[in-house]
Amino acid sequence: MLYLFYRPVAYNDTASYQRLAQAILNGWTDYDGTRVPGYPAFLAFVGVGAHERIYAAQLILGLLTTLLFFYFGWRVSGKGWFGVLVALAHTLNLQQLFFEANLITESLTTFFIAVSLAGTAWLLFPDAKRPLWQNMAVALAIGLTGGLATITRALFIFLPYWVALSLLILWRAAAPKTRWSAALAVGLSGLLIIGAWVNFIHQRFGLWSVTTMSGYHLVQHTGLFFEYVPDEYAAIRDTYIQYRQARITQTGAPGNAIWDAIPALQEVSGLGFIPLSNLLAKISIQLIREHPGLYLRSVIQGWLWFWKAPVYWSPAAVANPAVRGILSALVTIERGGMMAANVAFIFATLALIFKKVRQALKMDAFLWFAASTVWLTSILQTLLDHGDNPRFLVPVQSLVVFLVLWWGSLVIGKLRETKGK
Fold it and tell me: What are the phi and psi torsion angles at 211 (to 5°)?
């Protein structure tokens, strides 16, 4: 139905992904490392510029992700109806559904994360009859898909290693040999993909990094207090502040001013794109060391923004006015529901410090892993960037909803039991 009523939507980032996809097809010679290669490779495989085909492929990935969320719900509860509820909560969430039409990374990232989480769930729910080779095969798949999630959205670079550590700590039903073997398989297979990409960046640009734009991302934080840049870099400082002020005048906020400022900063510094990024990283690290309180304030604000993810959609992509009106109303309602789920998640997880809450919410190994993954995502995303923080929530939003639905069902069941007595 979405395919019938809604057309694919290009965003500001889409053109750069398509340019890099073409660079892949041309043999990687012009790949500038500004973005990790997962989504460009996906576009190159499906068809650069073939928007309808890309849209259809992302819809298929969305359906597979829905099935994986059914698996999470069924595995945790042991009940098919709850698996269906979790699957519907993902696929009828317009935030997730519309992203399957958006020509940017979120749907592909969500799919890889869901596969990696499904494998982790499979391992953490024990089966004494399961042979070792099956555990190892799934562990390898977890690491590979965690690595693919990383080279699609660099934020998730922690995922394969967090899975490996969680298996060592939480998988108590398995023998030590099995735990260690699976953890090593996850970590090493994830490292295979991530290491190959980092080596590419190092060989091509001399950087130990996942992108060539780390400095620009850090300026999203330090640009808020760029007045403290020493006079040694006065030309860069003053030029950026001009663009920051222009951004505030235009939008009311300074975020993302760096992307407008790059050409002028290159001109006043005499540096190319990558050397300028390296210099801005150096300046930013110095500012963070000298003004940790200002950086921390920016980090906290970015963390709060993370939980305010809107529904990214384009009303203009819906030709039928009646359908557009219905969808607009649903978007408003669903965003309110997601905000409520996010708040419930935060308070529920903070309450886990109490033993009675842990018992009431039946915290098993997979639930601990899932909840901690969301928390790690929320913290790491704001340490490194202060721009599109709400978008960083999208790949794990359905995981938040799944956890809140499960905990909510337990609370409702407990209330019914108490009322019955």
Answer: -140, 170
HSE of 216, CA atoms in CB hemisphere, 13 A:
20
pLDDT in tens, 8-39: 999 989 999 999 999 999 999 999 999 999 99
Give the C-alpha distances (Å, rounded to integers) separating 384 from 102, 226, 281, 299, 317: 24, 17, 11, 9, 33
User: Domain-by-domain residue ranges, the chain?
Assistant: 66-205+310-420, 214-290
Q: Tokens 């963070």 map to which residue?
A: 288
3-state DSSP of the chain: CHHHHCCCECCCCHHHHHHHHHHHHCCCCCCCCCCCCHHHHHHHHHCCCCHHHHHHHHHHHHHHHHHHHHHHHHHHHCCHHHHHHHHHHHHCCHHHHHHCCECCCHHHHHHHHHHHHHHHHHHHCCCCCCCHHHHHHHHHHHHHHHHHHHCCCHHHHHHHHHHHHHHHHHCCCCCHHHHHHHHHHHHHHHHHHHHHHHHHHHHHHCCCCCCCCHHHHHHHHHHHHHHHCCHHHHHHHHHHHHHHHHHHHHHCCCCCHHHHHHHHHHHHHCCCHHHHHHHHHHHHHHHHHHCHHHHHHHHHHHHHHHCCCCCCCCHHHCCCHHHHHHHHHHHHHHHHHHHHHHHHHHHHHHHHHCHHHHHHCCCCHHHHHHHHHHHHHHHHHHHHCCCCHHHHHHHHHHHHHHHHHHHHHHHHHHHHHHHHC
Distance from the Cα of residue 79 to its chain's centroid: 29
Task: For 272-307, write each residue's pLDDT tens digit.
Answer: 999 999 999 999 999 999 999 999 999 999 999 999
Between CA 256 and CA 276 the distance in angstroms is 17
**d(Cα 172, Cα 162) in Å, to the nearest integer?**
16
What φ, ψ does residue 9 adopt, rounded to 5°? -120, 125
Q: For residue 346, give both structure tokens.
A: 């935060």
